[in-house]
Amino acid sequence: MSATRESATVYVISALEAKGTATRDDFDVAGIVTAFRDIAEGWDFRSMEQETFWRIASTYLRF
Hints:
Layout: H1 5-17, H2 29-40, H3 50-58
């Protein structure tokens, strides 16, 4: 599967909802995808460390 914005979005949503304690509506998913794209310099986020993922995702938590 090629890495695209859409596949990156699916990856982020899956990671956010994996434990069942949060939903995509709790976060600015588009903001997370854009931030990761800037860091990863591509759409394939699978190699991103979980700690890095959650550090960035936490800055896009909606209140």
